[in-house]
Design goal:
Distance between the termini: 5 Å
Strand order of the largest sheet: 1-8-7-4-5-6
Helix content: 25-40%
CATH architecture: 3-Layer(aba) Sandwich
Largest sheet: 6 strands, parallel
C-alpha cells in the first residue's frame, strides 16, 4: 500500500497570476456545463480544467475507487471524479455556496466536508485510493505537515500540483538546490493567503518517503 507514487505526477506552474479581478467579475472559479443546459463562465474554462486533469492520466473509469478532493472550491474536479464512477469526498476550509449549487444541478452524491486540512485524519474520514491536492500547497503555512497529512490519507496515489519558482532561478540553482521562497505579505499574485513558493527540486524533496505496508 503506497502512500506516494511516481514523482512525475507532481507538477507546478512558474508563477500564479493575479486573477482576483476576474473572480470578482465572474463569481465562479470553475466553469460548468450543467445537465439542464445552464452554463457557468468561471475564471477557469472547462477546456483549461480538462487540460490540467489530463496531465495526471487518471483512468476514465474509477468505479469502486474512493477519491478525496482537498481544496475543492467550486467542485469541478470532485464532480468529474464522480462522473468517472468514484465515491468522492470534497473538502474545503469554507462552505462554498457555489459548490452546493453545482451539487444540486448535478443531482450529485459527492460528500462535502467543511474542514481544515490539518484536522483531517484516517480516523475521521478513512483512507482513499486517490487524493487530489491541486493548487493548495502554496496557500499553507506548514507545507511539510500538509503533505504528511495528505499521504496519511492516501491508500494508492496522491496527485499534487503547486506553484513553483523555477523560472525565477538561475539554471545552476534550479538543478542543485532545494529552495523555498517565503511570502511575508502579498508578494505572490497580490494575495495575502499565499505563503510559500518552492522550486521543483524542493517540492519533490518535501514529499514524505514512500512507505509500503
Amino acid at each position: 500500500m503506497r502512500f506516494w507514487r511516481r514523482t512525475s505526477e507532481i507538477l507546478g506552474f512558474s508563477r500564479v497570476p493575479n486573477r482576483d479581478p476576474e473572480l470578482l467579475e465572474k463569481g465562479w472559479w470553475h466553469s460548468f456545463e450543467f445537465p439542464s443546459g445552464e452554463r457557468v463562465d468561471g475564471v477557469r474554462s472547462t477546456q483549461e480544467l480538462n487540460r490540467q486533469l489530463a496531465r495526471f492520466h487518471l483512468p476514465n473509469d474509477l468505479s469502486g475507487k474512493r477519491v478525496l478532493d482537498i481544496g475543492a472550491w467550486d467542485g469541478w474536479f470532485s464532480f468529474e471524479m464522480e462522473r468517472r464512477g468514484a465515491d468522492v469526498l470534497a473538502v474545503d476550509c469554507w462552505d462554498n455556496p457555489r459548490f452546493r449549487y453545482a451539487h444540486t444541478q448535478f443531482n450529485s452524491r459527492v460528500h462535502y466536508c467543511v474542514e481544515d486540512l490539518y484536522d483531517l485524519t484516517p480516523r475521521k474520514i478513512g483512507h482513499f485510493d486517490i487524493v487530489l491536492f491541486f493548487g493548495v500547497l502554496y496557500h499553507l503555512k506548514h507545507p511539510l505537515l500538509a503533505l504528511e497529512k495528505v499521504c496519511a490519507l492516501t491508500r494508492d496515489v496522491a496527485y499534487v500540483e503547486s506553484h513553483v519558482i523555477d523560472r525565477g532561478l538561475r539554471s545552476a540553482l534550479r538543478a542543485t538546490r532545494a529552495i523555498m521562497e517565503f511570502y511575508e505579505t502579498n508578494e505572490l499574485a497580490g494575495r495575502a493567503d499565499n505563503w510559500i513558493g518552492p522550486n521543483s527540486r524542493c517540492l519533490l524533496g518535501l514529499r514524505p518517503p514512500e512507505k509500503v505496508l
